[in-house]
Amino acid sequence: MAIIGMSGGEGSVNLSTAQTGNGDSTNIAFRGSRTTPGAVVITSAIGATPTVTVNILGSVDGTNFYNVPYTLVGSPETVVYTAIVITTAVTTTYLLPSRQWRYLKLAYSANTNVTLTADAYL
């Protein structure tokens, strides 16, 4: 797992590309001292009987991770902390209004026949 930092200004960090199975995303995004909101875009490709659970995790120290709040583009005032369950081929943007984390990763579990690509925009 690599920690990828932002080099000044705004930008994106690839969290995973065509990742399968369970575990943490291939990369961890490090946004340093920036406190602006961000977003995560997750794209899924599926096989037979697909399902995967995704948690968006943040950390202030890069060691202790916890679920961070997110909202959907269609309901930006409804803040959610719970896991995301994906069962179809879809690309979804999750808005990250919280400023209470410096590191960001995804945790994939209960993955059956789903391949995930995710990018963080910080």
What does this structure look like?
The protein has one domain (2-121): Jelly Rolls, CATH 2.60.120. It has no helices and 11 strands. It has strands spanning 2-5, 12-19, 23-24, 27-30, 38-59, 66-67, 70-72, 75-80, 84-86, 91-96, 103-121. Strands 1, 2, 3, 4, 5, 6, 7, 8, 9, 10 and 11 form an 11-stranded mixed β-sheet that branches. It is globular.
Brief overview:
The protein has 122 residues and is mainly β. Helices cover 0% and strands 65% of the residues.
Blueprint (SSEs and pairs):
Elements: E1 2-5, E2 12-19, E3 23-24, E4 27-30, E5 38-59, E6 66-67, E7 70-72, E8 75-80, E9 84-86, E10 91-96, E11 103-121
Q: From the coordinates shown, what is the CATH architecture? A: Sandwich
- Low-pLDDT residue spans: none
In CATH's first tier, which class applies?
Mainly Beta
Number of strands: 11
Question: Count the helices. How many?
Answer: 0
- Give the overall pLDDT as a whole number: 92
Beta-strand percent range: over 45%
Keywords, separated by commas or semicolons:
globular; 122 residues; mainly beta; 0% helix; single chain
